[in-house]
Amino acid sequence: MQSVILRTGSGDGGVPGEAHSLPVVFLPNDMHKNLRSFIDTLRNENEIVEISAPVDPYLEIAEIHRRVIENQGKALLFTNVKGSKFPVVTNLFGTIKRIELAFGKRPQEFVKRAVEMVDILIPPKIGKLWNYRDMGLSALKLGTKKVRNAPVVESRQTEVDLEKLPLLQLWHEDGGHFVTLPLVYTESPTSGKPNLGMYRIQRYDKTTTGIHWQIGKGGGFHYFEAEQKNESLPATILLGGPPAMILSAIAPLPEDVPELMLASLLADSKIGMAANPLNGHHRLVAEAEFAICGHVPPHERHPEGPFGDHYGYYSLAHDYPVFHADAVFHRKDAIYPATVVGKPRQEDFFIGDYLQELLSPLFPLVMPAVKDLWSYGETGFHSLAAAVVKERYGREALSAGFRILGEGQLSLTKFLLLTDQPQDLRDFRSLFEHILARVEWSRDLFIFSQTAFDTLDYASGKINHGSKAILMGTGESKRELAREFNGELPAGISAAKPFCGGCLVVKGIAYDNDQYLGERIAKYYAFDDWEVVVIHDDIAYADSTEKFLWATWTRFDPATDIYAKKIELKKHQIGYQAPIIIDARMKPWYPKEVEVREDISSLVDTRWSEYFA
Prior knowledge:
Elements: H1 35-44, E1 48-51, H2 60-70, E2 75-78, E3 88-90, H3 96-103, H4 106-121, H5 126-129, H6 133-139, E4 144-146, E5 155-156, E6 178-179, E7 183-187, E8 194-197, E9 201-203, E10 208-211, H7 218-228, E11 233-240, H8 243-250, H9 259-267, E12 271-274, E13 284-285, E14 288-296, E15 301-304, E16 307-308, E17 314-315, E18 318-330, E19 336-337, H10 347-359, H11 363-366, E20 370-375, E21 384-389, H12 396-404, E22 415-419, H13 428-436, E23 445-452, E24 465-472, E25 493-500, E26 503-508, H14 517-521, E27 532-536, H15 545-553, H16 558-561, E28 562-570, E29 573-583, H17 598-611
Parallel strand pairs: 1-2, 3-19, 4-12, 21-22, 22-24, 26-27, 27-29
Antiparallel strand pairs: 2-3, 5-18, 6-9, 7-8, 7-11, 9-10, 10-18, 11-14, 12-13, 14-18, 15-18, 16-17, 20-21, 23-24, 25-26, 28-29
Helix pairs in contact: 8-9
């Protein structure tokens, strides 16, 4: 693979969670009302590359994108896409700098100030209210406004033909071409409340698509209500518009908090909405590039997938509702926005981290016992989270953990780490050592079976069902952690290497050849000094925090893949004795990892200089 040299010298090559100083001043008038405004800013900042060479939306664009983002490269505007007259733009948010260019500092400052205001003004204090008059002015910009002569309805397909749009196929075993940055707008059939969500869309033919409503998603709840009434659910698939729309559709907001409200906060202005030319259909986002208007009939299902997703594996084909397109509106010179997902870190990693930074001040407001909270993008976000919580009385930390697992999309978290001491949650090695030095295995590890599971996580072998775990390490340190391994390896283990203090990675024989390996080595004497031993197929996962997080937490189900030297049941409480074994080997029911097909890799190698001539 050829190297990519597409960086700027402005400090965009860092790691999320670290401090960055950027030589750009972000003012409120830098916010973008549409996609092309943002693209103009990227041009001015030398943060976008235009590729005029002909490119194929089948696998080729995706591989170019992956190589560029791996090297923290620029956004990509493909102006000559085979089979479509529309250009494609990708990697809009693939660096910290471009996130800053899209949104500036104002949204984070607004959220922090709003939390401060709530803390100071409850109960209300008339004398201090005047100090926050700026918040009232900002609040006037939240929400939506009516717009006439909306750009999104400048053109309309005479006959609906979704095959004229440059949908991408990212991986060769994907079920087809997908919309990867869809903004799906629906309204509740019972309350009328809106939802804007990002649910992947697989094109079936010229007029129909799949719509991947996972469990716990607002659009899926609206469809459930419509099915109960035996009615079709009107839906619009929007593409483009203010960059704020894209982040808002992904944000894990409480169910009844409108995403358009967050979008207006990020955009520093009300979101323009226009009447829909289709009778009886809901309004459109005026500045969108495309609006695909249609309906989802009740009780109709069709296989959707496979799809190489952000976990780094193929999510398998399952039956999902079917979207029927009734009309396709677009700007005269519409630009098609897309992203590419796969093994972390991809573009969604930077978007997810920004959203966490933006919304984190709200966590203590909603969950008072939670001081700090972080989900790890390297694990697909839902597989692992950590929190610093309060322990003002015995076991309050556990109560805080239950509160986290009961909050919106956080309820899909598979493994939750808790401590009551200040920690940098983004520094996983340090945090894990901190917890392993404090955990009391007889009382601080909780595994809950028969729970809901993230739809994209196949570790349990059953879609939407699996287990969860909470691991706590509170109070003062209780032990020195082992840091070197010099013991004799048992049968079935060929290598051992510490990941951090207290945690040892071992390379095990393939699961098919010994599915009881975890249970057996839990009792092996040479591992007695270690708190946690993780079985992997590749010892190299011990060398990198990013790889360790991905390969460990996406490959085990707590209820079936955790073992211990000794397990006791007292008063219905399960107690464990270290070492705790996590079997993170690939299992026969796991979907395959996504890998680039060899001929596509060779094609992109050959054409690389042509793309960037």
